[in-house]
Amino acid sequence: MSTETTAATFEVRPTSHPRTQTEREQALADLSFGKVFTDHMARAVWTKGEGWHDHRVEAYGPLSLDPATAVLHYAQEIFEGLKAYRHADGSVWTFRPHANAARFAASARRLALPELREADFIGSIEALVRTDTEWVPDSPGSSLYLRPFMFASESFLGVRPAHRVDYLVIASPSGPYFTSGFSPVSIWVTTDFHRSGPGGTGAAKCGGNYAASLLPQQQATDNGCSQVCFLDAATGTLLEELGGMNVFFVDADGAVHTPELTETILAGVTRSSVLRIMADDGRTVYERPLPFAEIAEQIRSGHIVEAFACGTAAVVTPIGQFKGTGLDLTVGDGGPGAVTTGLHAKLTDVQYGRAEDTYGWMHRLA
Ligand code: COI
Q1: Which residue range forms the structural domain that includes residue 43?
Q2: Considering its fold, how many domains does the chain have in total?
Q3: Which residue's CA is minimally distant from atom 3 of ligand 1?
Q4: From ligand 1's centre to the CA of 253, what distance in Å?
Q5: How many Å lie between the centroid of ligand 1 and the Cα of residue 244?
Q6: Whole-number pLDDT of residue 7
Q7: Which residues of the chain have pLDDT under 50?
Q8: Which of 146, 186, 308, 350 lies at a CB distance of 3.0 to 4.6 Å from 340, suitable for a disulfide?
Q9: Does ligand 1 lie within 6 Å of residue 244's CB atom?
Q10: Which of 155, 246, 175 has the alpha carbon at shortest distance from 30?
Q11: How many Å apart are CA 278 and CA 296, to the nearest integer?
Q12: Residue 2 lies in a domain
């Protein structure tokens, strides 16, 4: 095999200051989302001319950046999110990492960053999780959240793609994204802001999209909602996605509706898994333009009986209410519906190894 097709080796350089078992157990005892990090991180560097090199796993710790580092000025950055799950036999698995690798490469192309080969994306995750396996929690609903990311690390203020790029993976033992767990959340539909526009970066997983969502997300929080929901920038009528997750509706006939993918919507890995499960359950699945006015009318009339958000971090989260300026809608009876509850169970049963993985979605890490 040529070196072109062989995965790089992430050389492990163990930290000199690992947390003690007691410290780790304390950290794992009370988990929230994304606050605690493991002892190591995976890393590689790309430079124009040399390509990717210096693949390694090293001590987790602060990065030293020149104030002129390009990402700090022009936001040339992308990221991914996936999870490692502890199964009852102690083994550790992740979910559809090839899909995340493909999306990471697509995001890299859009942000003029160098692509990382799929083998190296998965190799970095394997190397990090095998080094920090003891950090994968086993309490119900917990996981090790994995955050691969890549950024322009060249010190240069000219506006052009950077000639040096750093790739890292960090890992965070985490509980549910929403502190309320599997219970209905309220969504704020903003008409003041859009997440992305035609020709923009909406389909890429880049930090800039999330930066643009923070002010509307703050508006959502100020109005007692957990997430903001965006309408399309071109017409201001079509439902697109939430701040950090995709959105689905279930109607009284059992059919499922979600916005069709466009250049302004992020193609969620959980979204595509949900579509597959729903179709295999015999449901009619519509990926189509979803005018919010139509959805609101169908919620009011009782034709739409359930709504849920989905994403790696959110998994499947029931939506109880949609609010906005002059808008206050309760979906169904406001509680988690049977379809949402069943879907959450089906997906998490596969992820946590409680059900057979008939799709071949799980990838063993340790
Ligand atoms: C994820 O679901 O992994 C996300 O990236 C959403 C959010 C935490 C940014």
Answers
A1: 7-175
A2: 2
A3: 81
A4: 31
A5: 6
A6: 87
A7: 1-3
A8: 308
A9: yes
A10: 175
A11: 23
A12: no
